Amino acid sequence: MEFLTTNYAPIMFAGLIVFLLLGFPVAFSLGACGLLFGFVGIELGVFPASVMAWLPQRLIGIMANDTLLAVPFFTFMGLILERSGMAEDLLDTVGQVFGPIRGGLALAVIFVGALLAATTGVVAASVISMGLISLPIMLRYGYDRSLSSGVIAASGTLAQIIPPSLVLILMADQLGRSVGEMYKGAFIPGFMLMGLYVLWVVILAIFKPHAVPALPPEARIYREDDGRSGYLSLAVVMVLSTGLAIFLAAHMADVHTWWQGEEVLDVPTDEKVVTAMCGGTFLAFVIASINRVFKLGLLSRLAERVTFVLIPPLLLIFLVLGTIFLGIATPTEGGAMGAMAALVIGFARGRLNMKLLQQALASTTKLASFVMFIMVGATTFSMIFQAADGPKWVEHLMSSLPGGQIGFLIVVNLMIFFLAFFLDYFELSFIVVPLLGPVAEKMGIDLIWFGVLLAMNMQTSFMHPPFGFALFFLRSVAPDKPYLDRVTHKTIQPVTTMQIYKGAIPFVLIQLIMVSVLIAFPGIVTGSLDKKVEVNMEAVGSQMMDALQNNEGYGNSDDPFATPPAGEEATPEPPAPEDATDPAKALQDALDAAAAPPASEAAR
Fold first, then answer.
1. Where is the composition biased (Low complexity) (predicted)?
2. Longest Cα pair distance anywhere in the chain, in angstroms?
3. How far apart are CA 355 and CA 88, in angstroms?
């Protein structure tokens, strides 16, 4: 019995693993394990029975959590955009831009995956959309099947790390940090990961050109009447937009100084990027609009197509992320604006009807309910685990690791990597992160850095063969039988499951490289965060004491109730009311006397 009470926390954690291995749903496993060990712990005297009285307040706190409202908002926004055909137009247009170069279709998939990640934040929607639209095109023109599968699955998982990511919302909630700060910390690492994907495709295009062929001339549909490609005018618009963006980024501090009326010397990097992108996008839109309205003929068909297709998602990115980074809106408010903007874009494109709207609402409700049930179970488990001194057990276990902070981070990331084979990011966020966060904070690790690091690692949970969810999503839409291509009228062979698994492995390694880079260079995350203002409380206390001593106490203050210094008349006592029998008059006289200034004030 003594062994049970002494080691109750590790036994409870082992019990949870047994529940999960038996195949019970995660939410119910967490709740059942918490309640079972709660009642047993009360009987064994591990903690008092009053512990169970905390549970209703914990559950009410979940339902009153405003931060979690961002989850259904961003989910709904992503589903609406996916059903409005935005992904199809983006892939078609960007594929035409990059198509003439080797690996162009793969680069288009990566670029569109990043755009969808920054507008939808939903992995399933991104992977399924790009699998349905781009995979047949890549197979049609001879792309390697493994590479095609890997690049689609990996680009879809960018929704895990590029804001507005759902996992970053949950990570911020579990670590007790601001969602906006978590978004800022993940902004640069997310696009660095996209850059590594691009680098891998470029390397393949150099050393294995047959695996990533260019788009044939007959497949390039946006040409001028005289046969020109139209890249010149597109390049001019891009140069003008990029020039304005660079100018804004370089002079962002001057803009803030002019706007706020006081000198501003430093502006966060993420704010520079978002604002510069907005300025460059707006300039391109103005140029294309003037050209179309006045029929000037300055832009080619390709340039106009690219501009008007890219403007809506980029505008939505600024609406959501820009308002959050600039401090205009909270993440929940940004999600609400994004959902409303997605509805406007969907109806404006004429591709959204009530049936699709009902489907999006149903899917959003299912996901939100799923998150809520897991949170209820996780809260029940964590409450009993804390009562059994579980956090102390985890702290002693982790703090005894060799290597200090680096050793702790390496072990934690290895553990997350292997757990991600069996658990998705929701379950990892609610089970593991609350146990590791307090330990990381006590070891002096910045929790924003820690959260972004874990989110980057959890991204591998979507790519792990054979359990990765992104691989399952792609398998559901990839052809499993030979079919006749409607354009080339050739028979296209199917994509096998092993080809999908083989294509995912290089991108899993790239994700692990990015995790290592973040461990080695934390400034990639923390450099874009708002600088903390350090206040020396001892110096403040000393200044207050000096001020009090120089003023000889409280006598020289402007306090009307202060005791006057020697030599000054004291405040006269209020005169007694003439008619004490009149309560109203007595009260008024007393108020008038109390409101009269002291003699020292009158002398002044």
1. 583-604
2. 112
3. 19
Listed residue (404, 403, 524) closest to 161, CA to CA = 524
**Separation between Cα atoms, residue 376 and residue 387, nearest integer Å:** 17
Q: What is the dihedral of CA 458, 463, 465, 470, to 10 degrees?
A: 120
Q: Go through the chain and tell me how many residues it has.
A: 604
pLDDT at 1 over 70: no
The H or E element spanning position 483 is strand 483-484
- CA atoms of 223 and 5, how far apart (whole Å): 76
DSSP letter for each residue of 503-558: HHHHHHHHHHHHHHHHHH-THHHHTTSPPP----HHHHHHHHHHHHHHTTTTTTSS
Let me know how many helices (H) and strands (E) the chain has, helices first: 29, 2
Residue 446, Cβ neighbours under 10 Å: how many?
18
Q: Tell me the CA distances in angstroms from 124 to 19, 364, 386, one per residue in order.
A: 27, 12, 34
What is the residue-wise DSSP string for 162-227? SSS-HHHHHHHHHHT--HHHHHHHHHHHHHHHHHHHHHHHHHHHHH-GGGSPPPPGGG-----TTS
Pairing of strands 483-484, 491-492: antiparallel
Closest CA to 358 of 114, 22, 588, 79: 79
Average pLDDT rounded to a whole number, residues 160-186: 85
Query: How far apart are the C-alpha atoms of 9 and 392, rounded to whole Å?
Result: 9
In the chain, the percentage of residues whose pLDDT exceeds 90 is 9
Helix axes 497-520, 179-207, angle to 10 degrees: 120
Contact between 37 and 15 under an 8 Å Cβ cutoff? The reply is yes
DSSP string, 351-379: ---HHHHHHHHHHHHHHHHHHHHHHHHHH
pLDDT higher than 70, residue 270: no
Provide the mean pLDDT of the chain.
80
Tokens of 328: 């205009």
Q: Which two tokens stand for residue 58?
A: 């914990």
Task: Classify residue 131 by burial, with Cβ atoms within 10 Å: 0-12, 13-18, 19+.
Answer: buried
Q: Mapping DSSP to helix (H, G, I), strand (E, B) and coil, where does residue 110 land?
A: helix
User: In angstroms, rounded to a whole number, what is the distance separating the alpha carbons of residues 212 and 198?
Assistant: 13
Q: How far apart are the first and last CA of the chain?
A: 79
| pLDDT in the model for residue 551 | 58
d(CA 495, CA 335): 37
Distance CA 99, CA 151 (A): 16
Please give the Cα distance from 445 to 134 (Å, whole number). 42
Q: How far apart are CA 316 and CA 314, in angstroms?
A: 5
